[in-house]
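Q: Focus on the chain.
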Amino acid sequence: MLALQLLVNGLVTGCALGVVSVSFGLIYATTKLFHVAHAGVYTLAGYLAWSAVRHDVPDVLALLIAMAASAAIGAAIQHFLYAELERRRATHLVVLIASLGTLAVMQNVIAAVYTPNILQFPLPWGSRMASFAGVRLTYTQMLTVVFSLAAFAFTLWFARKTILGKQIRAVASNPFLAEITRLRPQRVYVAVVAIGSAIVALPGVLVPLDLGLQPYGGVTPLLTATIAMIAGGIGSIAGSFVLAVGIAVLQNLSLLVIPGEWSIGVTFFIFVIFMLFRPTGLFTRR
């Protein structure tokens, strides 16, 4: 029974990480920039929703506000920071350092405004439990699975069926050709960072709703999501999501045989070995 509970918990965590991985992968595959500040957007979304709820904003509206604000922040980072650095011909290393600096600023501002202590959402229904065949889940965990699968399905549909999605794929494939065909890659970059930021706000709100808010809590999910994106195949939405779920399940099931503090290290070690044999990722497409 313990193994089943750990498996289900891993699936819940994996769905949330899958959304982080998909959103980060969408941005990276298009802009080719390692958007580390994505972890700050993930964290900030939870605090924005918490503030809205504290001011008696309905729960769903608070989530939508957090998503809209995250999209605006992501677009601003791309337009005012990354695009400006590219205009000045900065190297990718300089952009990475700038993104790290942005993340540090966001984390410290959050800690200064909200305190570095763990904050809980004032929503009693979020911690209520439901039992299925001996497996116990909170309402928040069930919502996390539903919303994460919906976000994954939406991203697949958006990338393949919409005009903007096809433009994003075209720019990701060949930015130079997209420029001369007047697709305006810089506008596409702003749009894709905004969309990725809105998507990552979902787990950014739902995970803290279950576990609590921490100013520096976004780095570990982003690291795990990055591993999933690379192992799944850069540019593969399905690969990123599936590998994120696989990593989370493996981490949880490893608790049956090793202490918790070793589970992340062992899991990453296994995936490093995997990457030695499949460096391009499991679901890489031509």
